[in-house]
Amino acid sequence: MEHASARQIAAIPHYAEQGRECTLFEQAWRQRLPVLIKGPTGCGKTRFVEHMAARLGRPLVTVSCHDDLSAADLVGRHLIAGGDTVWCDGPLTRAMRTGAILYLDEVVEARKDTTVVLHPLADDRRLLSIERTGEQLLAPPEFMLVVSYNPGYQNLLKSLKPSTRQRFVAMSFGYPAPALEEAIVAAESGVSPAEARSLVSLAGALRRLTDHDLEETASTRLLVMAGRLIAAGLDPAAACRAAIVEALSDDAETVAALAELVDAVLAPAGAAR
Ligand code: ADP
User: Fold this and answer.
1) Measuring CA to CA, which of 69, 155, 193, 212 is 20 to 30 A from 145?
2) Distance 50 CA to ligand 1 centre (A)
3) What is the CATH number of the domain that holds 62?
4) Alpha-carbon Rg of the chain, whole angstroms?
5) Could you give the angle at which helices 193-208 and 220-231 cross, rounded to 10 degrees?
6) 59-85 pLDDT, tens per residue?
7) Are 161 and 63 members of one domain?
8) Ligand 1 closest atom vs CA 223
9) 45 lines ligand 1 (CB under 6 A)
């Protein structure tokens, strides 16, 4: 069972830089240092890695980690094919052989045995020992390990151990500043600058809420989704309810309160349009 995608990205995916993260990432790649990206869901981590892989001309292998993902899922396993046993590389091994950028999204979800293979890879040994075949694979200079996780989840059992964390150059992502987020939402969804502004002010209002027990708040991704529905002709309040409010909560009272907030924030913008 493998949840990986490998691709050479032809055009460079659009990424609006928040600070100097592109330079930092490029220098880390040149210095052969692994990178850890922390940040809430939907704030642009994946897009950033896609952008950088294309910019550096490297294939990107992405693995969405889950609680069943084991070291063998990453490294590879023997498979029976036509009566023969054949070795099949996993995404990690494949990424190393092709000098790709390997992106382990939500790495804290993976099973603990994965750290055993990641540790020698994430220090200056840059080595993968494939126990089952006896192969010792050295990472080529172009190979890079990138992991991400969301430290906002209040799940202490699922954080990275210091011994793992201290092998990575780390960068923290947050939601983009309002002017940048407006430009992103407009460019990604096709809404007008005024519509992008009201979506970003709605996100600001939702992100300031403290009296609802929301696990996560409105991400840039949700704003882009709402924007796409609006650009396609849907009424803005209906679009925000479907793309933002319903995505944030299953609790009927919370959904009603958030929907009221949507109406309150969008009404003046709608009246002004
Ligand atoms: P994450 O990996 O952090 O969950 P994504 O990278 O998938 O988030 O971002 C979600 C969506 O938000 C992207 O598909 C893109 O449309 C938009 N987005 C967020 N940040 C940026 C950015 N800085 N530049 C361009 N698009 C962005």
Assistant:
1) 155
2) 10
3) 3.40.50.300
4) 21
5) 140
6) 999 999 999 999 999 999 999 988 899
7) yes
8) 12
9) yes
Q: Is residue 1 part of a domain?
A: no
Over 91-103, what HEC string results?
Answer: HHHHHHHCCCEEE
Statement to judge: residues 159 and 140 lie in one domain:
yes
Distance 182 CA to ligand 1 centre (A): 13
State the DSSP string of 184-216.
Answer: HHHHHH---HHHHHHHHHHHHHHHH--SS--SS
**What one-character-per-residue DSSP string does 18-52 give?**
SSSHHHHHHHHHHTT--EEEE--TTSSHHHHHHHH
Closest CA to 45 of 143, 145, 150: 150
Return the pLDDT at 165: 86
Same domain flag for 154 and 184: no
* Average pLDDT of span 121-127: 93
User: Which domain covers residue 195, as residue numbers?
Assistant: 178-272
227 close to ligand 1 (CB < 6 Angstrom): no
Q: Which residues contact 133 (CB under 8 A, 6 or more apart)?
A: 87
Q: What is the pLDDT of residue 220?
A: 97
Position 213 scores a pLDDT of: 74
> 228 CA to middle of ligand 1, Å?
14
180 lines ligand 1 (CB under 6 A): no
Q: How big is the CA angle at 123 (ends 120 and 129), to the nearest 5 degrees?
A: 20
44 Cα to the center of ligand 1, angstroms: 3
- Average pLDDT rounded to a whole number, residues 208-216: 81
- Nearest atom, ligand 1, residue 220 CA: 12
The percent of residues in the chain predicted with pLDDT above 70, rounded, is 92
* Pocket flag, ligand 1, residue 236 (CB < 6 Å): no
